[in-house]
Amino acid sequence: MALLQIAEVGNLTLVLGMVVSLYVIFAAIFSQLKRRPEFLVSAKHGVFVVAGLTTLAVVILEWALLTHQFRFEYVANHVSRNQPAFYTVSALWGGQEGSLLFWVWLLGLFGAAVLIQQANQRKHLVPWVIAFMAFTQTFFFALLVFISSPFVLLPQTPADGVGLNPLLQDPGMFIHPVTQYLGYVGFTVPFAFALAALVTGDLSYDWIRTTRRWALFAWLFLSLGLLFGMRWAYVELGWGGYWGWDPVENAALIPWLTGTAYLHSVMIQEKRGMLKVWNLVLIMLTFLLCILGTFITRSGVIQSVHAFGVSSMGPLFLAYIAAVLVVFAYLMYLRMDKLKEENRLDSFVSREATFLLNNLILLGAAVATLWGTIFPMLSEIFAGKQITVAAPFFNQINGPIFLALIVLMGVCTLIGWRRASPAHLKRNFMPPLLLAVVTTVLLVALGVRDPYGLVAFAAATFVLGTVLLEFYRGIRARMRMYRENAVVAPVQLVNKNRRRYGGYIVHIGVILAVIGIVGSTFFQSELQKNVMPGEAATLGQYTLQFEKLKMTQENNAQVIAADLVVFENGAQVDTLRPLKAYYPAADQMTTEVAVRTTLREDLYVILAGWNDDGSATLKIIINPLVVWLWIGFIVFIVGTLIAMLPDPRHAQVAERVRAEKALVGA
Amino acid sequence: MASILQNPPARPAARSSGLSIKYILGSIVLLGVIAFVLFSSFQSNAVYYYTLPELYAQQTELVGRTVRVNGPLDKASIANDQKNLVLKFNLVEGGHVLPVVYRGVAPDTMSSGESVVAEGKLDGNGVFQADSILVKCPSKYEKSAEQ
Q: With an 8 Å Cβ cutoff, is A275 touching chain B?
């Protein structure tokens, strides 16, 4: 039977992958310990072989999915005949086995990419990088081969499959796992380099410089993962919000927080040679938190919207994390003497100090969130009693932390490196402070009363003021010095220092997102009403006229929708169609909300229920300013991309360093 | 390890150790403050989680306290008043029957749910007034919707 053989080939690629990556670990290490370069060549070949094997496995699985080979248990569980092909593609990463394969495939590709990128550079670091990445690959292959293979065949071929969970049949959910995994897997590379630096004793800035773009890349995709996850929750889960402090949400947030801290603190090491130990610890934490995030999402160990069922992967994941921690701790101990700081912190009123504070605050948030997330698991293990905390806890502890972080963002922009003079400070702080005060007064005048909301808006405006001040000063300087006009100057300003101004743009994005979050969290209003056909419901300046209920068949679902006409201050502005869809194959009902988005607010309508008498129960929510959350994210992404571009000035410096090294013969 | 030690490029001699005691102390204080807020927040927000038998065993002390209870769902008992958005159902386990009342939009997964985690308070009449419910579905590739 051809199918049997194909499944065997699939399993074989996984077993082979495991064996080859195991070989790569030993070959790479052996080549360094015994100075046998031919083993390094062999190890490098192994890296490409593994990349090829995982690609083959992915191709086989996608083929099985797209051609509806329901004899494969994985296909039967995630595909149905009348499912749109678009979502059948995404079934590759929609289930546990497939997502693990996806993880190891990405890791294989990244390993190959690192080799190509580092073709003839950093020859002392690369073997150890390969060894560690292969170690991680072996672990994931072991999970696939021994616990959770995607190539298991059923005894008989079912007539049709269950289909992808309807909640996942959404464009956001198509892309969210991809971006999330690119982020999780991406952090393997900087950490592998960190380990290589520790092993070889080369603890200069080199390992950080090499992996700067990798770290930004991974962090960018973690951010995208959060963006798409939040957008999906808002649009698909349909409760009017986008973040519930769900364990899996937290699992994605925590490494993002430590990753953000890392991106900032490496700048201190670059500029002043400080925090070497701290940066190594941070990247290790970020990477392990990515592994933990993968584990929490995939093992169902903590109840969550994402729960996939408890499996036996727990002990293996924990063993992997423990192994990495032990090796890292040992290496740190070994290399303690090489990790001396090169400079002191000169003043508390310096940019270094604000970056340190930034790190402490971000770590505080990460620890708080991690604690709240894994506590139920720990309390069960140690006390036999499961204790949980929900959104109120996380909001209570993280709210003030993030507020402090926002204020700090503004402060650090205005303080220079090393030390800032009091006169300098006063000149820098006055305009943004004034802006914040004026804005607060305006808001109060407009009727805004919530104290938390006002404080948050004030902080946000303050930061916006500081960044805009930086841009203004820079643009004005360019216009004077280079006689550029008001259009060319801003472009050149950013272009000539992409890292710095890319970073500022990221901060602007964050502030816009904060404005969206504050608006929709503190100033939300809602209404629940049961309406007969022809009847209307009013919330704020909107009146929604309910026409009637309509039942239709769409693709693989039976849909019941409520036709609504929206009036704003009397004039018709829109029609909305919130609905519920029933998927017979999965025996599941989903809700699709209808949203009218303006820059000012979202009008968000849920069809909560319907009755035989033709009446519909609607839940109507107004989310002020929420669109700025999404806009902020986009600005944030653009800023990160700009910061990732090669920096002309840094390229010049790097070139000079290379030339010097060549001269000295180092 | 000595055999693989590569001599790193020459670096200027390290000056005195980086962070003075003042800043380390400051960091510790800051982290201490965060830790304190963390624990006090935690105490006031911690919710104990009970199975049905456990709930009944401690019934008298738990009345009026916010807790989470997990129990198998009796599908036949689901009564969804969609006009007023009041959902009623029973959790049944080991001879105990716990009536639950939830005011809000019924989760889509209710009809196929296997068990429910409800967070709320047990009132004086033995009815559990739920503030939020999480429905868990039987299949391995479940999706439960939290409302």
A: yes
Q: Give the B window 2-21 contacts with A, CB below 8 Å.
A: 3-6, 8-9, 11-12, 14-20
A368 touches chain B (CB under 8 A): yes
> Is A305 within 8 Å of B146 when comparing Cβ atoms?
yes
Mean pLDDT of A193-220: 91
Domain membership of residue A192 (yes or no) is no
ipTM score of complex: 0.74
In order of their start, the domains of chain B are 48-136 (2.40.50.140)
Domain match, A269 and A139 both: no
Smallest CA–CA distance, residue B36 to chain A, in Å, is: 10
Q: What pLDDT shows up at residue B12?
A: 47
CA nearest A30 in B: which residue? B4
Best residue of A397, A526, A610, A657 to probe chain B, by most B CBs closer than 10 Å: A397
Give residue A88's Cα distance to chain centre: 24
Dihedral, A44, A45, A48, A54 alpha carbons, nearest 10: -110
For residue A202, the SS3 value is: coil
Strands B47-51 and B66-81, by their bridges, are parallel
Q: Tens of pLDDT along A562-619?
A: 999 999 988 888 999 999 988 777 777 888 899 999 999 999 999 988 888 888 999 9
- A221 and A160 assigned to the same domain: no
Instruction: State how far the alpha carbon of A292 is from the alpha carbons of A57, A142, A286, A374, A547, in Å.
Output: 25, 17, 10, 10, 49
Q: Residue A338: list chain B partners with CB under 8 A.
A: 8
Q: What domain range includes position A70? A: 1-169
Q: What is the pLDDT of residues A11-32, one digit of tens each?
A: 999 999 999 999 999 999 999 9
Chain A residues touching B6 at Cβ < 8 A: 124, 200-202
How many domains are there within chain A?
4
Residue B6: pLDDT above 60? no
d(CA A21, CA A138): 6
